[in-house]
Amino acid sequence: MKIHPLRIGRTKVPFGQFYGGLQGFSLGEFAADKDHFLWVPIHAYLLDHPKAGPVLVDTGISPEQAAHVDYYRGSIMEHAMDVDEYELPADQTMPAQLARRGYRPEDIRAVIITHFHEDHVGPLNLFAHAPVYLGAAEYAARNDKVLGLVPLAYPPSIAAITDWRPIEFTGPAIGGFEGSADLFGDGSVLALPTPGHSPGSTSVLVDHRYLLTGDAMYTIRHLAVDQVRAFQTGGEAQYVDSVRRIQWLRRELPELVILTAHDHTEYGTRLIAGLVGGELSDVDLAWAKSYERATFDELANLNPARLPRFVPSGDGLGHVA
Q1: Number of structural domains in the chain
Q2: 21-65: per-residue pLDDT in tens?
Q3: Does residue 143 lie in a domain region?
Q4: For the chain, what is the radius of gyration of the CA atoms?
Q5: Hey, which residues does 311 pair with through a beta bridge?
Q6: CATH number of the domain that 192 lies in?
């Protein structure tokens, strides 16, 4: 099955959000720190499934979200998000990215969302004709307020969807996962429960070769969960447990390639570029495994030389070394 990364703009995030989970990064810093920002990509994935047809995993952001003010006006989101949090060039909108692969939004036969956060469901309403799969726990928590303030699912972003398909993970165990869900009945697309980042966060295993983690892992370095950990507003124990289960899956499937939504590192950039034609070459796969061997030991402990650090570049922005 071919898998196409879709670049749907980018988002500006605090360094501590991605890497400060073990350094005491706080909710106050999350709100106030304007001096340690990173621009990271937003990726959705298009699967050319031989029977189910074109299927999306996540949808990225919409032009309305990127404009910010009118879309979020009058809601807590207007104040919880920075005005310039998103950037979406015209050639990176969901319709434009689909058109590059020969599709229109109405051609999509199903959508799988890893979780309800805004940078994963922005243009979801374009696919009101399609069933939308998501973890049952995520669907159940859709009206919950994070920290009592911010809705897990912003109502306008999901208003048009009527065919929700909550996933129960009652299928066979695989790797460290006690259950799975075979979404299309042929074993090619398995949903796996990876809660923590959100209540029902779900990862997607494609052809037992690619694991699409959504935000269960921000980058490949987050595999070393005892050394690199994202900031969590809740569910940290679940988050850690989910990454450990991914570690087990990786040991069971040595050729597994982990693809996240926001990996801004050399690893993510190289693999996304390698998948332009929908398939990863043997050369790119060999490069990925060589990179991983230089980055982790057999127990997924991180090479100390590759611990992330913020390198400022001016105006509060920087990159990660």
Answers
A1: 1
A2: 999 898 888 888 889 999 999 999 999 999 999 999 999 999 999
A3: yes
A4: 18
A5: 319
A6: 3.60.15.10
Q: Identify the CA nearest to 119 among candidates 218, 32, 191.
A: 218
In a domain, 286, yes or no: yes
Task: Report whether pLDDT(70) > 90.
Answer: no
Residue type, position 319, single letter: H
Secondary structure in 3-state letters for the chain: CEEEEEEEEEEEEEHHHHHCCCCCCCHHHHHHCCCCEEEEEEEEEEEEECCCEEEEECCCCCHHHHHCHHHHCCCCHHHHCCCCCEECCHHHCHHHHHHHCCCCHHHCCEEECCCCCHHHHCCHHHHCCCCEEEEHHHHHCCCCEECCCEECCCHHHHCCCCCEEEECCCCCCECCECCCEECCCCCCEEEEECCCCCCCCEEEEECCCEEECCCCCCCHHHHCCCCCCCCCCCCHHHHHHHHHHHHHHHHHCCCCEEECCCCCCHHHHHHHHHCCCCCCCHHHHHHHHHHHHHHECCCCCECHHHCCCEEEEECCEEEEC
Q: Which two tokens stand for residue 167?
A: 């996933």
pLDDT per residue as tens digits for the range 276-306: 899 999 999 999 999 999 999 999 999 999 9
Domain of 199, in residue numbers:
2-312
List pLDDT tens digits, range 182-218. 999 999 999 999 999 999 999 999 999 999 999 999 9
Whether residue 147 is predicted with pLDDT greater than 80 in this model: the reply is no
Two structure tokens written together for 25: 């990064």
pLDDT of residue 36: 95
Is the CB of residue 197 less than 8 Å from the CB of residue 18?
no
List CB contacts of 95: < 8 A, sequence separation 6 or more: 104, 105, 123, 126
Q: What pLDDT sits at residue 28?
A: 86
